Amino acid sequence: MDLVPALEEPLRKVLGPATAKVMAEHLGLHTVGDLLHHYPRRYEERGQLTHLADLPMDEHVTVVAQVADARLHTFASARAPRGKGQRLEVTITDGSGRLQLVFFGKGVHKPHKELLPGTRAMFAGKVSVFNRRLQLAHPAYELLRGDAEETVETWAGALIPIYPATAKLESWKIGKALQTVLPSAQEAVDPLPDSLREGRGLVPLPEALLKIHRPHTKADIEDARARLKWDEAFVLQVALARRRHADAQLPAVARRPTPDGLLAAFDDRLPFTLTEGQQKVSKEIFDDLATEHPMHRLLQGEVGSGKTMVALRAMLAVVDAGGQAAMLAPTEVLAQQHHRSVTEMMGELAEGGMLGGAENATKVVLLTGSMGAAARRQALLDLATGEAGIVIGTHALIEDKVQFHDLGLVVVDEQHRFGVEQRDALRGKGKQPPHLLVMTATPIPRTVAMTVFGDLETSVLDQLPAGRSPIASHVVPAADKPHFLARAWERVREEVAKGHQAYVVCPRIGDEAEEPKARKSPEDEAEKRPPLAVLDVADQLGKGPLDGLRVEVLHGRMPPDDKDAVMRRFAAGETDVLVATTVIEVGVNVPNATAMVIMDADRFGVSQLHQLRGRVGRGSAPGLCLLVTEMPEASAARQRLNAVASTLDGFELSRIDLEQRREGDVLGQAQSGTRSSLRMLAVIEDEEIIAEAREEAAAVVAADPELERLPGLRTALQALLDEEREQYLEKG
Question: What percent of the chain has pLDDT over 70?
Fold first, then answer.
């Protein structure tokens, strides 16, 4: 069934090509339906004005205020040398504060006639500072004239919707466009089943659309919001429930460990007992592996909570059952490290087919892009014959040439480094869909969103194994207090003097072929200084505050052998200080490293800082993490760093991150939140709605997987899941 044509009508037919072009380019709105779902950000009451006292700098604002005075000045300038230049200065007030408006040149005539003292209007423009005073230069404005038949009361009490706008299209122009298309809202097809809508006392969709755009009272706005939040939560949950339902129909080979096989032999060798958390999570995973449809499980655990151990035991269980397991790591450094630690943990159990190997041993092979041809050929052969039960590798595992004998389990480390397509390609290597275990140390926003939305089963490891030490974190404000930075380098020397080691992390490498695609935030723009670079910082430290210590550098563009050599020297204690980029972010394990100094810490995300910090305090000595920044005390960047310094709880941090970044387009590729497909729903605030919608959706899909009895819901799903998103969800 097609969408109702009225809502599919292209905006250019309804509003004309010029307005439609701006809406498409700047707001991503193409059809009448898109525009109806472009909701007001907030509402102004004509009687109760925006506070001019709290205008944000550099933002596009809309204010409702009264003209206090207007003065026309003439001045001489290069263009108007005889003193014929004109500047109109208008002061507006709303009782809370005053704001200056300026108009120049030919632009002064119309406002000079219209903006007389006492006039009330809406003004829109970008707030800037001139002579230490806030001002709007050449704002667009709309006079507020009460029509004769409108009484002053209704006029002052009306709610004026303020839309997310752009410099090219002011809020009230969007409002006028909505006025034109609002009658079509009557034809909106309601996606919610009647029983659900009535049971929860929600208004019908056409009514919700009318009330959100043209509310008469605040209660109208509440009704509309409650209804539209439910729509978003429910339609999304139905998409996820259908995917879970489809996954449950897929066949998979059940993999059960043999009682006295490889896993049992491995457990006997362990020099410590597993934490309760590890035992509980392992049981959840083994139960999933024993079923005949594919496991889709997310394993969330703090940095260092022993996720690798849990994953390794799952891999051994699958090998026991005659299958193979593949572990996908985001970088070569990490793949090599996992390979080293897995073979060390397994000892002779990893020496299948070799002299001295245990009888039930298997082979553990490494496969990365930079391996030599001979080693690579041997690894591929071992996989194809089934000789190798476990393979650990990077993207190289996904290439067409790689054939498995019987792939039973895919473990993906650090999900946020792997595209969905890549996981999908690896899953396609099994004769039947393999089981999937995704591990993440910081529940990053999309994962948190998906956890709240729940489309992967989730296991959480929340205790740290014995022997892990606490990490103290402090913000070092280098610009405000330079002596704090000097003290930071003294602390590094003190740690080295005690026989420990330290990391210094920088955002850039510093050779000329620099990555140009770094995102520019307004804060970057404001300070214009390029981020600090590894090569420069290492040089300055070696000659300056860390003179006499053994300082080495590590970054992603070094040849793999050099990287490995540097890491080995650091692990062996032959280097005191490692100056590195974020290549050390995941999985690097050097228990003797106790201190970390992160330069330009404001240039890293919350999750990344938490990951980096997890590299210290991995032994018996306490860890220290110093976040160096030049950002001013009041900036958002400093608040973010203070949050990281104040808690070691990754779940708490991911919530902070999510509140700051928004959830990203939960369905799309984008990781950070510029345009969310969620317009009304806020993942953190609306967890309850989401949880209830999940239950409702599961029930609806169980009863009617193809939604044959709910054409409105099918239509809404198609609109939500255009082709690309549908595939994205499929690959999950």
Answer: 82
